[in-house]
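Hi all, a correction to my earlier message: I attached the wrong file for Hcy-binding domain-containing protein. Here's the right sequence:
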Amino acid sequence: MINIRDFLKRRVLLFDGAMGTYYARISGDMSLGCEQANIKRPDIIRNIHREYIDAGAMAIKTNTFGLSYFDTSHEEIQKRNELISAGYDIATEAAQDKAYVFADIGPAAGASESETADIYISQAEIFLKKGALNYIFETLSGSEGILKAAEFIKNLKPSAFIIVSFAVLPDGYTRDGRYYKDLIEKMQKSSVIDAVGINCISGAGQMYELVREFDLLRIFESGKYLSVMPNAGYPVIRGNQSVFDGNDAYFASKLKQIYSYGVRIIGGCCGTTPEYIKKVAQDLSGEAPKSVFVEKIKPESHKSIKKYTNVFLDRLKTWKDTSKKVIAVELDPPKDGDAQLFLQNAKRLKDIGIDILTISDCPIARARMDSSLLSCKIKRELSMEVLPHLTCRDRNINATKALLLGLYSEGVHNVLAVTGDPVPTAERSEVNAVYQFNSRKLASYITSLNKDIFNDSIKIFTALNINSKNFSAELKRAQLKIECGSVGFLTQPAYSQESFENLKMARCKLDALILGGVIPLISKRNAVFMHNEVNGISIPEDIIDSFENLTPDECKKHAIKLCLDVAARMYEDVDGYYIITPFQKIDIIEKIISGIRQGVNDYGLR
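and the right structure:
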């Protein structure tokens, strides 16, 4: 066959459709992933490839999408490599110079960012040994590891043709909260990527709308080709199985419209079959190549018109003008449906002049009243500034976006993005954690929404563990959080000498606002518990022992003094204080705040 780049100058490159859903349909085998069939039922995979080629596909993907994993056992690695090798052999045998074969590499499943590139490269090595010239990285939620893997391929095979395709929801966001325009722009700027696009999750109609909002001229001028491969539509559940009931004529009509915008690489994803590809091939038969889009579409603005003033952030940035550091106080939400005591305590805190109320989100993974709904209630009824904690543990991307839209509409424009405490082991059979994000990805997602939707951005705060045993690594994570959009940090409570030294280091290294963590210890028992059972908190032994033989009233006074000592020691290294309320003991918090405001303690608070 002619060089693929020469082919693309003359014609549209029509890809095949789905492998997994089509394999399940014709084989009736739902017990194993279709990749296992490369060895166990190669005849079926070979026939599927041939059906797509007979339908008009000029490019087919190897049946290796689901093999982007890494296992440390030699046996599992060998098995994966055999499946990849067999998948490539089956595809090339089926193609027989009638279609281009693309080595298909899917998203790295469950891998950390540092492992992702290695997983992709380990697959690419096998394909390169088999002689693969064309590659597609598809259904991606982010760009981690892609450029490094593409560079590896190009170094060994400079003539390789590489497509990178992201899986996006109809609103343009991936499941990791990345905006498709940002991802495509990043790939577009790389010299090792030949084509970039979108596939999966959305149907043809939704992808048509996304294509209309591309900066198509910039993509084409960069010399990159655009790739679009939609699903057959939305799946329905029938007999405990996901089934696509799409219409091939509608699908083909939308792909023809997409093609009219100059999209040169098209195909199908989940739910599409040879019938879909045949219909697309028929509709595009005789079409002249498109090099420019038909019309220039001005992207619709989704941004709200109303303007808000972020009172808390203004205070946090200008505290030096008044020499009055800001004070944030955290309250745990109610365990039941009665918010009356919580409202009373919040009102008391407002009356003593705190700057913002922070509300934890189901701490230690125990269900409580929702922090975001409670924040809206406090904002409306008490006109207080609020900072709801937003964990990644319990919500997927849809629920997270819905919640952020609601918070924004209620005037809640500050959030604390945290990964969230894990669900206790004994409860995991009943409570499933989501963890679609970590705090960095959540911050990045909110930053994307700020660009696309919110007129006045939601300000993102994140956590900083100054009690970390490896604080250099913690600082690196903090820097990544800043790059993802974090404007400030709330630290874990400080008590040990190491925590104060780490805080000072953070002040020197991080270009961000810092609120130093302060938590009163109300007894020796409480101090022991905090030190041993609460993640991220370290209490020195001498402080624990200092509560020995104290009466409850003496413990309270001692707790207040310790907190004022902590506030004084961290004064030079923070922009404000983040005071955590234990057991709703507002009277202790009131005295701590009064002491901070008066500046009276052994260290001489300003």
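Sorry for the mix-up. Confidence is low (pLDDT under 50) at residues 292-299, 423-433.
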